[in-house]
Amino acid sequence: VDxxxxxxxxxxxxxxxxxxxxxxxxxxxxxxxxxxxxxxKIAQKAFRTLRRAQFDANCMMLFxxxxxxxxxxxxxxxxxxxxxxxSEWLESLATSRARNALSAIVQLRxxxxxxxxxxxxxxxxxxxxxxxxxxxxxxxxxxxxxCDGVVVDGKSAVDESSLTGESRPVRKGPxxxxxxxxxxxxxxxxxxxNVSTVNNSAVSRxxxxxxxxxxxxxxxxxxxxxxxxIYTPIVVLLAFSMCTFPWLAGTEVGKYWTKLxxxxxxxxxxxxxxxxxxxxxxxxxxxxxxxxxxxKGGAHLEALGKVKKIxxxxxxxxxxxxxxxxxxxxxxxxxxxxxx
Length: 340
Description:
There is one protein chain. By secondary structure, the protein is α+β, with helices and mostly antiparallel strands. The protein has eleven helices and nine strands. It has helices at residues 3-15, 30-51, 57-70, 74-106, 161-164, 202-215, 219-244, 251-267, 271-290, 298-304, 314-318, and strands at residues 112-116, 123-127, 136-139, 149-153, 156-159, 170-172, 177-178, 183-184, 190-194. A hairpin with a 6-residue loop joins strand 1 and strand 2.
Protein backbone atom coordinates (compact mmCIF):
# COMPACT_ATOMS: atom_id res chain seq x y z
CA VAL A 1 0.00 0.00 0.00
CA ASP A 2 1.32 3.45 -0.93
CA UNK A 3 1.86 5.30 2.40
CA UNK A 4 1.29 8.71 0.79
CA UNK A 5 -2.13 7.63 -0.48
CA UNK A 6 -3.00 6.25 2.97
CA UNK A 7 -1.96 9.46 4.69
CA UNK A 8 -3.91 11.51 2.15
CA UNK A 9 -7.00 9.41 2.85
CA UNK A 10 -6.62 9.64 6.63
CA UNK A 11 -6.27 13.43 6.56
CA UNK A 12 -9.23 13.68 4.15
CA UNK A 13 -11.48 11.63 6.45
CA UNK A 14 -10.47 13.75 9.45
CA UNK A 15 -11.19 16.93 7.48
CA UNK A 16 -14.73 15.70 6.78
CA UNK A 17 -15.51 16.24 10.47
CA UNK A 18 -15.49 19.98 9.70
CA UNK A 19 -18.76 19.54 7.79
CA UNK A 20 -20.50 19.18 11.18
CA UNK A 21 -19.95 22.92 11.63
CA UNK A 22 -19.43 25.03 14.71
CA UNK A 23 -16.19 24.43 16.59
CA UNK A 24 -15.56 21.35 14.42
CA UNK A 25 -14.68 23.57 11.45
CA UNK A 26 -11.10 23.69 12.68
CA UNK A 27 -10.66 20.19 11.23
CA UNK A 28 -10.86 21.64 7.70
CA UNK A 29 -7.14 22.41 7.94
CA UNK A 30 -6.42 18.68 7.88
CA UNK A 31 -7.61 18.79 4.26
CA UNK A 32 -4.44 20.69 3.35
CA UNK A 33 -2.44 17.77 4.71
CA UNK A 34 -4.44 15.46 2.47
CA UNK A 35 -3.64 17.64 -0.53
CA UNK A 36 0.04 17.78 0.44
CA UNK A 37 0.28 13.98 0.43
CA UNK A 38 -2.00 13.33 -2.56
CA UNK A 39 -1.15 16.02 -5.10
CA UNK A 40 2.68 15.70 -5.65
CA LYS A 41 2.59 12.77 -8.11
CA ILE A 42 -0.35 14.30 -9.96
CA ALA A 43 1.47 17.64 -10.14
CA GLN A 44 4.64 15.99 -11.49
CA LYS A 45 2.73 14.33 -14.32
CA ALA A 46 0.80 17.54 -15.04
CA PHE A 47 3.98 19.62 -15.27
CA ARG A 48 5.58 17.08 -17.61
CA THR A 49 2.53 17.36 -19.86
CA LEU A 50 2.46 21.16 -19.71
CA ARG A 51 6.15 21.30 -20.68
CA ARG A 52 5.11 19.60 -23.93
CA ALA A 53 2.47 22.34 -24.39
CA GLN A 54 -0.33 19.78 -23.95
CA PHE A 55 -3.15 19.10 -21.50
CA ASP A 56 -4.39 15.84 -19.97
CA ALA A 57 -6.45 14.53 -17.06
CA ASN A 58 -3.63 15.22 -14.58
CA CYS A 59 -3.67 18.90 -15.53
CA MET A 60 -7.41 19.04 -15.03
CA MET A 61 -7.15 17.48 -11.58
CA LEU A 62 -4.31 19.82 -10.58
CA PHE A 63 -6.25 22.91 -11.69
CA UNK A 64 -9.39 21.70 -9.89
CA UNK A 65 -7.42 21.17 -6.66
CA UNK A 66 -5.78 24.59 -6.86
CA UNK A 67 -9.13 26.18 -7.68
CA UNK A 68 -10.78 24.59 -4.65
CA UNK A 69 -7.92 25.83 -2.44
CA UNK A 70 -8.40 29.29 -3.96
CA UNK A 71 -12.05 29.14 -2.92
CA UNK A 72 -10.91 28.03 0.56
CA UNK A 73 -12.98 24.88 0.07
CA UNK A 74 -10.17 22.73 1.44
CA UNK A 75 -12.31 19.61 1.92
CA UNK A 76 -13.25 19.68 -1.78
CA UNK A 77 -9.57 20.06 -2.72
CA UNK A 78 -8.70 17.09 -0.52
CA UNK A 79 -11.48 15.01 -2.10
CA UNK A 80 -10.21 15.67 -5.63
CA UNK A 81 -6.55 15.00 -4.83
CA UNK A 82 -7.19 11.89 -2.71
CA UNK A 83 -9.68 10.23 -5.06
CA UNK A 84 -7.47 10.77 -8.10
CA UNK A 85 -4.32 9.66 -6.26
CA UNK A 86 -6.04 6.47 -5.11
CA SER A 87 -7.17 5.84 -8.69
CA GLU A 88 -3.56 6.19 -9.83
CA TRP A 89 -2.45 3.78 -7.11
CA LEU A 90 -5.13 1.23 -7.99
CA GLU A 91 -4.11 1.46 -11.64
CA SER A 92 -0.45 0.84 -10.77
CA LEU A 93 -1.51 -2.05 -8.49
CA ALA A 94 -3.53 -3.65 -11.26
CA THR A 95 -0.65 -3.14 -13.69
CA SER A 96 1.78 -4.83 -11.30
CA ARG A 97 -0.58 -7.80 -11.03
CA ALA A 98 -0.73 -8.01 -14.78
CA ARG A 99 3.07 -7.83 -14.81
CA ASN A 100 3.20 -10.73 -12.36
CA ALA A 101 0.95 -12.71 -14.65
CA LEU A 102 3.35 -11.88 -17.47
CA SER A 103 6.33 -13.06 -15.40
CA ALA A 104 4.61 -16.43 -14.99
CA ILE A 105 4.40 -16.66 -18.77
CA VAL A 106 8.03 -15.59 -19.11
CA GLN A 107 9.00 -18.57 -16.95
CA LEU A 108 7.79 -20.81 -19.76
CA ARG A 109 10.81 -19.72 -21.77
CA UNK A 110 13.60 -22.32 -21.36
CA UNK A 111 16.85 -21.06 -19.90
CA UNK A 112 19.31 -23.70 -21.12
CA UNK A 113 19.67 -26.40 -23.75
CA UNK A 114 21.70 -29.56 -24.36
CA UNK A 115 23.52 -28.63 -27.55
CA UNK A 116 24.83 -31.51 -29.66
CA UNK A 117 28.12 -31.12 -31.53
CA UNK A 118 27.45 -32.52 -35.01
CA UNK A 119 31.07 -33.58 -35.57
CA UNK A 120 31.91 -35.20 -32.22
CA UNK A 121 28.46 -35.99 -30.85
CA UNK A 122 29.39 -34.39 -27.53
CA UNK A 123 26.71 -32.60 -25.54
CA UNK A 124 27.28 -29.16 -24.04
CA UNK A 125 24.88 -27.23 -21.80
CA UNK A 126 24.40 -23.74 -23.23
CA UNK A 127 21.95 -20.87 -22.84
CA UNK A 128 18.79 -21.33 -24.89
CA UNK A 129 19.29 -17.81 -26.26
CA UNK A 130 22.64 -18.91 -27.72
CA UNK A 131 21.06 -21.52 -30.01
CA UNK A 132 21.32 -20.79 -33.70
CA UNK A 133 18.98 -21.90 -36.46
CA UNK A 134 19.99 -25.34 -37.69
CA UNK A 135 21.62 -26.46 -34.44
CA UNK A 136 20.70 -29.79 -32.81
CA UNK A 137 19.65 -30.31 -29.19
CA UNK A 138 18.85 -33.31 -27.03
CA UNK A 139 15.70 -33.08 -24.90
CA UNK A 140 15.72 -35.64 -22.10
CA UNK A 141 12.71 -36.83 -20.15
CA UNK A 142 11.35 -34.02 -17.98
CA UNK A 143 13.28 -31.29 -19.83
CA UNK A 144 11.73 -28.29 -21.54
CA UNK A 145 12.20 -28.14 -25.28
CA UNK A 146 14.48 -25.11 -25.62
CA CYS A 147 13.43 -23.99 -29.10
CA ASP A 148 10.86 -24.32 -31.84
CA GLY A 149 12.06 -27.14 -34.01
CA VAL A 150 11.55 -30.45 -35.78
CA VAL A 151 12.15 -33.87 -34.25
CA VAL A 152 14.88 -35.73 -36.17
CA ASP A 153 15.24 -38.74 -33.88
CA GLY A 154 13.26 -40.37 -31.08
CA LYS A 155 9.61 -40.88 -30.21
CA SER A 156 8.07 -39.54 -27.04
CA ALA A 157 5.08 -37.74 -25.50
CA VAL A 158 5.14 -33.96 -25.14
CA ASP A 159 3.09 -31.86 -22.71
CA GLU A 160 1.92 -28.78 -24.65
CA SER A 161 -0.61 -27.57 -22.06
CA SER A 162 1.46 -24.48 -21.23
CA LEU A 163 0.84 -23.16 -24.76
CA THR A 164 -2.36 -24.81 -25.97
CA GLY A 165 -4.25 -25.54 -22.72
CA GLU A 166 -4.75 -29.12 -23.90
CA SER A 167 -3.71 -31.46 -21.08
CA ARG A 168 -3.58 -34.61 -23.21
CA PRO A 169 0.08 -35.43 -24.07
CA VAL A 170 0.90 -35.31 -27.78
CA ARG A 171 2.95 -38.06 -29.38
CA LYS A 172 5.98 -36.73 -31.24
CA GLY A 173 8.28 -38.53 -33.63
CA PRO A 174 10.59 -37.83 -36.57
CA UNK A 175 9.54 -34.85 -38.75
CA UNK A 176 7.00 -33.65 -36.14
CA UNK A 177 7.13 -30.00 -35.12
CA UNK A 178 7.68 -29.09 -31.45
CA UNK A 179 7.43 -25.74 -29.66
CA UNK A 180 9.84 -24.20 -27.21
CA UNK A 181 8.60 -24.23 -23.61
CA UNK A 182 6.77 -27.54 -23.95
CA UNK A 183 7.99 -30.53 -21.91
CA UNK A 184 9.13 -34.00 -22.91
CA UNK A 185 7.19 -36.22 -20.49
CA UNK A 186 7.80 -39.51 -22.29
CA UNK A 187 10.50 -42.07 -21.61
CA UNK A 188 12.64 -41.41 -24.69
CA UNK A 189 14.97 -38.47 -25.37
CA UNK A 190 14.21 -36.38 -28.45
CA UNK A 191 16.77 -35.04 -30.88
CA UNK A 192 15.46 -31.72 -32.17
CA UNK A 193 16.67 -29.45 -34.96
CA ASN A 194 16.20 -25.75 -34.19
CA VAL A 195 14.21 -23.88 -36.85
CA SER A 196 13.86 -20.43 -35.23
CA THR A 197 15.62 -18.00 -32.93
CA VAL A 198 14.51 -17.45 -29.33
CA ASN A 199 12.83 -14.14 -30.23
CA ASN A 200 10.69 -15.84 -32.88
CA SER A 201 9.62 -18.82 -30.76
CA ALA A 202 6.00 -19.53 -29.81
CA VAL A 203 6.66 -18.53 -26.18
CA SER A 204 8.24 -15.22 -27.24
CA ARG A 205 5.25 -14.45 -29.46
CA UNK A 206 2.92 -15.21 -26.53
CA UNK A 207 4.89 -12.84 -24.28
CA UNK A 208 4.77 -10.17 -26.98
CA UNK A 209 0.98 -10.55 -27.23
CA UNK A 210 0.59 -10.01 -23.47
CA UNK A 211 2.87 -6.95 -23.54
CA UNK A 212 0.90 -5.49 -26.42
CA UNK A 213 -2.32 -6.20 -24.55
CA UNK A 214 -1.14 -4.16 -21.57
CA UNK A 215 -0.21 -1.23 -23.84
CA UNK A 216 -3.36 -1.43 -25.95
CA UNK A 217 -5.96 1.23 -25.14
CA UNK A 218 -9.69 0.94 -25.63
CA UNK A 219 -11.80 3.41 -27.67
CA UNK A 220 -13.24 4.81 -24.42
CA UNK A 221 -9.77 5.49 -22.96
CA UNK A 222 -8.66 7.15 -26.21
CA UNK A 223 -11.86 9.20 -26.23
CA UNK A 224 -11.25 10.43 -22.66
CA UNK A 225 -7.69 11.52 -23.52
CA UNK A 226 -8.80 13.07 -26.79
CA UNK A 227 -11.56 15.05 -25.09
CA UNK A 228 -9.21 16.10 -22.26
CA UNK A 229 -6.73 17.60 -24.76
CA ILE A 230 -9.49 19.81 -26.19
CA TYR A 231 -11.78 20.26 -23.19
CA THR A 232 -9.11 21.15 -20.61
CA PRO A 233 -7.56 24.17 -22.40
CA ILE A 234 -11.05 25.54 -23.17
CA VAL A 235 -12.06 25.33 -19.49
CA VAL A 236 -8.72 26.79 -18.34
CA LEU A 237 -8.98 29.66 -20.84
CA LEU A 238 -12.57 30.36 -19.80
CA ALA A 239 -11.69 30.32 -16.09
CA PHE A 240 -8.61 32.49 -16.71
CA SER A 241 -10.73 35.03 -18.56
CA MET A 242 -13.27 35.09 -15.73
CA CYS A 243 -10.50 35.63 -13.17
CA THR A 244 -8.71 38.46 -15.01
CA PHE A 245 -10.75 40.67 -17.36
CA PRO A 246 -13.58 41.55 -14.89
CA TRP A 247 -11.00 43.32 -12.68
CA LEU A 248 -11.03 46.10 -15.29
CA ALA A 249 -14.59 46.90 -14.16
CA GLY A 250 -13.60 47.32 -10.53
CA THR A 251 -12.36 45.50 -7.44
CA GLU A 252 -15.71 44.13 -6.28
CA VAL A 253 -16.60 42.87 -9.76
CA GLY A 254 -13.13 41.33 -10.08
CA LYS A 255 -13.46 39.45 -6.78
CA TYR A 256 -16.92 38.17 -7.72
CA TRP A 257 -15.87 36.87 -11.15
CA THR A 258 -12.63 35.42 -9.80
CA LYS A 259 -14.69 33.31 -7.44
CA LEU A 260 -16.94 32.27 -10.34
CA UNK A 261 -13.85 31.37 -12.37
CA UNK A 262 -12.49 29.14 -9.62
CA UNK A 263 -15.91 27.52 -9.18
CA UNK A 264 -16.05 26.88 -12.92
CA UNK A 265 -12.73 25.05 -13.04
CA UNK A 266 -13.71 22.87 -10.04
CA UNK A 267 -17.17 22.01 -11.37
CA UNK A 268 -15.96 21.44 -14.92
CA UNK A 269 -13.53 18.70 -13.86
CA UNK A 270 -15.04 15.34 -14.98
CA UNK A 271 -13.64 13.44 -12.00
CA UNK A 272 -15.83 10.35 -12.29
CA UNK A 273 -15.04 9.79 -15.98
CA UNK A 274 -11.30 10.41 -15.59
CA UNK A 275 -10.93 8.25 -12.48
CA UNK A 276 -13.12 5.30 -13.43
CA UNK A 277 -12.11 4.57 -17.03
CA UNK A 278 -8.45 3.47 -16.65
CA UNK A 279 -9.11 1.60 -13.41
CA UNK A 280 -11.92 -0.43 -14.94
CA UNK A 281 -9.89 -1.68 -17.88
CA UNK A 282 -6.59 -2.26 -16.14
CA UNK A 283 -8.28 -4.08 -13.25
CA UNK A 284 -10.21 -6.21 -15.74
CA UNK A 285 -7.06 -7.14 -17.68
CA UNK A 286 -5.22 -8.00 -14.46
CA UNK A 287 -8.09 -10.11 -13.12
CA UNK A 288 -8.37 -12.13 -16.32
CA UNK A 289 -4.59 -12.56 -16.60
CA UNK A 290 -4.42 -13.97 -13.06
CA UNK A 291 -7.01 -16.55 -14.09
CA UNK A 292 -5.01 -17.60 -17.12
CA UNK A 293 -7.11 -15.63 -19.63
CA UNK A 294 -5.22 -13.30 -21.95
CA UNK A 295 -7.38 -10.43 -23.21
CA LYS A 296 -5.56 -8.38 -25.83
CA GLY A 297 -6.18 -4.95 -24.37
CA GLY A 298 -9.06 -2.82 -23.14
CA ALA A 299 -10.58 -2.58 -26.63
CA HIS A 300 -11.21 -6.33 -26.69
CA LEU A 301 -12.35 -6.31 -23.05
CA GLU A 302 -14.91 -3.66 -23.99
CA ALA A 303 -16.00 -5.72 -27.00
CA LEU A 304 -16.76 -8.68 -24.71
CA GLY A 305 -19.64 -6.69 -23.28
CA LYS A 306 -21.36 -6.89 -26.66
CA VAL A 307 -20.92 -10.66 -27.08
CA LYS A 308 -24.19 -12.60 -27.30
CA LYS A 309 -22.97 -16.17 -27.90
CA ILE A 310 -19.71 -17.92 -26.99
CA UNK A 311 -18.28 -21.19 -28.35
CA UNK A 312 -15.99 -22.92 -25.81
CA UNK A 313 -13.15 -25.36 -26.31
CA UNK A 314 -14.04 -28.11 -23.84
CA UNK A 315 -10.75 -29.45 -22.44
CA UNK A 316 -9.13 -27.10 -19.97
CA UNK A 317 -11.91 -24.55 -20.40
CA UNK A 318 -15.17 -26.16 -19.34
CA UNK A 319 -13.29 -29.06 -17.76
CA UNK A 320 -10.21 -29.09 -15.53
CA UNK A 321 -8.14 -31.13 -17.96
CA UNK A 322 -6.96 -33.59 -15.28
CA UNK A 323 -7.14 -37.31 -15.96
CA UNK A 324 -9.01 -39.50 -13.49
CA UNK A 325 -9.90 -43.19 -13.20
CA UNK A 326 -13.65 -43.48 -13.67
CA UNK A 327 -14.16 -47.24 -13.89
CA UNK A 328 -12.11 -50.41 -13.28
CA UNK A 329 -12.89 -53.93 -14.50
CA UNK A 330 -10.82 -56.87 -13.22
CA UNK A 331 -10.35 -59.70 -15.77
CA UNK A 332 -9.50 -63.21 -14.53
CA UNK A 333 -9.03 -64.59 -11.04
CA UNK A 334 -5.31 -63.98 -10.62
CA UNK A 335 -5.76 -60.67 -8.70
CA UNK A 336 -8.64 -59.32 -6.65
CA UNK A 337 -9.99 -55.83 -7.18
CA UNK A 338 -8.36 -54.66 -3.93
CA UNK A 339 -4.95 -56.03 -5.01
CA UNK A 340 -5.18 -54.29 -8.36
